[in-house]
Design brief:
Low-confidence stretches: none
Strand content: 5-15%
Number of strands: 2
Structural class: little secondary structure
Radius of gyration: 20 Å
Shape: flat
Helix content: under 10%
Mean pLDDT: 82
Oligomer: single chain
Amino acid sequence: MITSKVLTGAPQYTLRIKDWNTDAIADANAFVFKPPADTARASISPENMKDFDKLPPGTAAGAKK
């Protein structure tokens, strides 16, 4: 069950999967990350993350992620 936290009334959605084929064989290459040619690896360090906060700007006080 999925509960929306951004829509008024917090509607819930349920997904039921039928006839799931558990014998199917997936190609391992289907799960390999292949970045586009024009991308670059991001460098994540404490110095370049110092301006990030746990919650986005404008989040009400006491709000959760």
